[in-house]
Structure formats: C-alpha cells, structure tokens
Amino acid sequence: LGDRCLDYLARRADVNGLVRLVEYKQWHIGEGADWVDWYPTRMEGKTLMFHQWYVRALRRLAALHTEFAGGAGRADRAAAYRERADLVVDAIRRLYWREDHFVTNIDYRGKVADEAWLDDQVWAIRFGVATPEQAARIWEWIDADAGRFEGVPMRWAAFEGPTHGPLSWFGRNGAGDILARYRTGNADRGLALIRRISWIFSRDENVYEAYNMAGEVVPGTQGWGNYTEHCGGLIWSVAEGIFGLRFESDGEAVASLEPALPRDWSGASIDFYIRGARYHLEHSSVPAGRRLLVSATGTAQPVRIRLPGKEASVHLIGAETPVDLIY
C-alpha cells in the first residue's frame, strides 16, 4: 500500500518532485493530502507541511525496503525513494525559504503564500529538512519573542489574521517545537516546554483542544477535551525528547536510544513496544554515575544506544539478553 501511494504521488510530481493533489476550489476535507488545516492557503496546492511528511514517508519506506531486501523489500525502490526524498528536500530549501522562515505554500492559486506558520518551521527542523543555518535563523526570531510564540507551546501563526493563529494546538505545534529543540541540542528548552504543557494538562485534569499563550482554555474547532492529537504529541515529546527513543529502523537497528535526562533527576523509567516486544527502560543513580537497564519480553530486537560521552553501539535486547550499562 505504501508503494502504491508513493507511485501515485510520483506520477503527479513536477520536475522538483513537488506534488499537487487537489486542484483549485476542488478540495474537500478528508479528500486531498494537500489539506493541512482549516486555513485557505493550507487547503490546496503545494503545501510545505504535506511535502515534509512526504519526505518522511519516502525515507521510512526506503529504510524498510533496505532492511527487508531479498524478501518483501526491493533495493531498487529504496534507492529511488532516497533519491526522490533528496530532490524534494532540495526543492523545499530553495523554493520555500525566505530570509528567516519557510512559506506555507508556493502554489496557492498560482502564487506563493508567504505566511510563517510555526508548525511549518519546527517540523522542518525536526525532520532535518531545514539546513542548520535555516534552523538557526528560525530559532533566532522565535527566541527573541518566546512569550508570544511559546507561552503555551506553541502558537500556530507568527503573523496576525487567522482566527486560531494566536492559539496553541499542542499535538502538531507544541510537540513539533519540543522535538525540534531536542534535535538541535537544546534539551533544557525542550524540557521547560514539556514541563509547561504538563503543568497545564495536570491543572485542568484534561487535555483541551486550544489554549491561548496565557494558558487559558479557549474555544477551538469544537473538539474541546480529551484531545487525542495532543495526548499523542505529549507521549512523543517525552519518549523522544527526554528518553531519546526514536522508532526509525535502518539496516542495523530497529530503534535508537539517546537519553537526555536532566542532570538533577535521580531516575526515570518508561515502557514501550518495538515490533511486538515489550521493553522496560530504567535510569537510576548509582555511585559511579547513572545506570541504564533495558529489559524485554518477546523476540529480541537490535537497538542502537548512544549514551552521553560514549560512542553508539547496537545491542540485541530480548528476554534473555537485557542491557545493563553505566554512564
């Protein structure tokens, strides 16, 4: 199914690998993958957000084809997907970038929609679509007015006008902000944002759809409480940010672990699943520093572990082969 979807997109791609799936005035919610959210410039055309996730899909399918080459996977498809992903990334960096931000759409009614949406910016950083120089320019203006953009992670629009622009939708905005912070080495800021949103959710004893930058619950799109998108975003932020868990397989490992626990924490633990095996990961303080213990039930899986100050190494972790490391 993934291959068929990517084949369909390839047939609709221009010379830069960019895709337009919905023609002008033909969009319907749930029909076109161009559709990003409720604002007109993000409902049709060559939207930035669609193409960032398109790159992610290409890279993930390429990795799976490589891993299973000789069986269900095909090396030629893996190579083609990587080449296409590189083509799209190059186009995004050239065609969507302005002086200090990415525009949201380069083909809205045949014109460029030069609007700085915050989710466009932070996911470009998280997915590695933005160059280090572009990421630095984006962080520069966000950090210069953090109260406006990250009062509750994260404001939707960096410009005025959209009804929901000044509000936070945590799952797509705040989670992207946190993950991008960790990706660029700013774990302290990432943790501060996790603590901020966790305090708000705990205060409300619920996870509401929309908040203003003062942390007040405000009307959104009638989704109101128990907002699943934000729940998923918080889980992703904690698992990847604090615990350093990334479930992106390659030829050597099915997942990677690069913890970024705060220095003043005495310990922390998390349970998670990889391909049917349940893992228990626990950090604790010991006289020699910190101890990482990873145990599992189910079929053993190779996991790459990179501890602070140490080289990465791959460990086959299963019921009979736990990992016990000091760092």
Provide a short characterization of the protein structure.
With 327 residues, the chain is an alpha+beta fold. 39% of the residues lie in helices and 16% in strands.
Mean pLDDT: 94
Terminal CA distance reads 43 Å
Question: How do the strands line up in the largest sheet?
Answer: 3-4-8-9
Beta-strand residue fraction: 15-25%
Alpha carbon gyration radius: 21 Å
- Which percent bin holds the helix content? 25-40%
Q: Any idea what the shape is?
A: globular
SSE ordering: HHHEEHHHHHHEEEEEEEE
Q: What is the overall number of helices?
A: 9
Total E-strand runs: 10
For the biggest sheet, the summary is: 4 strands, mixed
User: Which structural class do you get from the secondary structure elements?
Assistant: alpha+beta
Low-confidence stretches: none
Describe the structure in your own words:
By secondary structure, the protein is of the alpha+beta class. The protein has nine helices and ten strands. Strands 3-4-8-9 form a four-stranded mixed β-sheet. It has a four-stranded antiparallel β-sheet with strand order 5-6-7-10, with no helix packed on it. Strands 1-2 form a two-stranded antiparallel sheet. α4 (118-126) crosses α5 and α4 (118-126) crosses α7 (170-183). The longest helix is centred in the first third of the chain and has 22 residues, at 75-96.
